[in-house]
Structures are given as C-alpha cells and as structure tokens.
Amino acid sequence: MSPTTPSQAVLSFDGGTILLEVGSHPTVERLSGGVPWVWDPRVGAWRSDAIEYPATRRALAEAGIAVEDHVPEWEPVRW
Question: How far is 58 from 54, CA to CA, in rounded Å?
C-alpha cells in the first residue's frame, strides 16, 4: 500500500446508492475497480449506485483497505 492510499474506508447505504468515505478523487479512481463515483458535497462522501456494492468491496479488499461497512444485509422484496 502506498503512503497516499488510505488504510480504512467507510461504506453506507442511502436511498438506492452507496456512499464511500475515503480520500481524494485520485484515490477513489485507483480503488474503484471501474465503479463510477460522483462526489456529493451534501454529505461529504463519494456516491455510486448500490448495484456497485460487490465491485466496490472487491476493489477495496484487493487494495488492502479495511472497510467499516454500514450497508445492511440484502433482503428479498416481497411484492
């Protein structure tokens, strides 16, 4: 891990999106695994569609970044 790579990230769920609290845009680009992130100044975190959660977890694990994960477990939707 390089000195500019953070050692921890925080993931949370917000209305169909995931929020990533970690470093700067270049850091997010390196860690993202191709996931499209947008900076959301309202919450001070990076935001992407929730469907990108598995790819995000993989990318963070591959980079050796510890994750504080606040994303709830998946539950089936009964219509």
Answer: 6
Residues 6+ apart with CB under 8 A from 72: 13
Residue 62: in which H helix or E strand, if any? helix 53-62
The predicted model scores a pTM of 0.79
48 forms beta bridges with 18
Cα–Cα distance between 47 and 41 in angstroms, integer?
Answer: 10
Summarize pLDDT for 16-33 with one digit per residue, the tens. 999 999 866 566 777 766
45 three-class SS:
strand
Residues 6+ apart with CB under 8 A from 79: none
